[in-house]
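DM from R.C. (forwarded with permission)

"hey, sorry to bug you on a friday — could you get me a structure for this? deadline for the figure draft is monday and I only need the backbone to look sensible"
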Amino acid sequence: MNVKMNGVQSNGIHSNGMNGSFMNENGVHHVSVRTHVNPAKLKSRRQRWNVRASEMSKNTHNPIRSIVDGMKLTPNPEKPMIALSIGDPTVFGNLPTDDSVLQAMKEAIDSHKYNGYAPSVGYQKSREVVANFFSRPEASLEAKDVILASGCSQAIELAISVLCNPGDNILVPCPGFSLYKTLAVSMGIQVKLYNLLPEKSWEIDLHHLEVLIDEKTTCLIVNNPSNPCGSVFPKEHLQKILSVASRNCIPILADEIYGDMVFPGCDFHPMAPLSIDVPILSCGGLAKRWLVPGWRMGWVLIHDRNNNFGTGIHEGLVKLSQRILGPCTVVQGALEVILNNTPPEFYQSTISFLKSNAEICFSELSTVPGLNPVMPSGAMYIMVGIEMEHFPEFQNDVEFTERLVTEQSVFCLPATAFEYPNFFRIVVTVPEEMMVEACIRIREFCARHYRPRSQDSNELDQ
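My reply, with the result:
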């Protein structure tokens, strides 16, 4: 029995008068109204269903999906389909993860230790493992500096969400991964596209970047190695990017999901160890380097040696992570073995394969009239420019790639999906024989539709 004394029930719940209004131990306000409802007032209630989609859902737009879904993709029935459009290295089965990675998962499952909820930011031990793996003398990390997430995509969402408010703007590479814009626009954040320069192996146009910055700019996104370009920035270029950010006091979101997936002769430099004063949220995960995108394990690494983030960003990331109950606990349980025991030969084998396929693709398409591939230095992609004036049948890269499917059953992603028209992206994770066959078909397609400028001029004169 609860006895009420001076507005406080004996169970410690505060009560307020006749209506039984009280605050429970979780700070939730409850009101129990003991009155009769007048039937006449019921008429003022909603009389019909009027369920509306939220503004956030209306503003969520994935350009890849909208462009691909709108394409007329009917492959040539006489040729088997070769899909060079999907950034998933597991699709064809030729790039399995290492046995040690699978064994780590099996042991985590068999232990029965990881079947329950973990803290929203991840297990303490798992965060320590990630911190130790990515710590550098110039940019040390502790467990508190790691937020585990459901894949790198959620890590990016957390980073944008904690740095930006509606009405702010962020700086995004062009061409660049479409998710940045999808997430930002859905949150009421403006996206400003800064140019990458294909003639300079997709380095950033630093002047253009700096011109875009204003008082509403709250984040600079740098994707290195790059999707869709396959480029890897040299150390000197990264230092220049950091100088721009430092001069303008803009924090950086470093999307480094392809970190260390670089070809021999090229080095990957994470941004954080190069920074003197610019605070950086580095996003990564298991998806690409360990070839397990479906396991959905990512992380945000908080680098802030000068305390320019203060406590707000740390606390904000923790609060945002509490919107869901964190990433898969079984994968967290396997993280220590995955990060520390994967043999170097596994990484080397993957990179060797990707480089070989990229070289095949670049070599074959470089000699195709009307195409201008840009040799990548890492990641899993190669961008190919189309000299559209030589293909007058097609208005743009979307029509070009659409007809390539219809005639040759080869699907490349039009770069309009990356805000960069008149290019297309090829994924180089397919088996080698499929890569060779795809290049042969692309050559045949271009030979059929290519028109020299002189011929165009003669036709106009006639």
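R.C.: lifesaver. The radius of gyration is 27 Å.
me: no worries. Residues 1-18, 456-462 have pLDDT under 50 and may be disordered.
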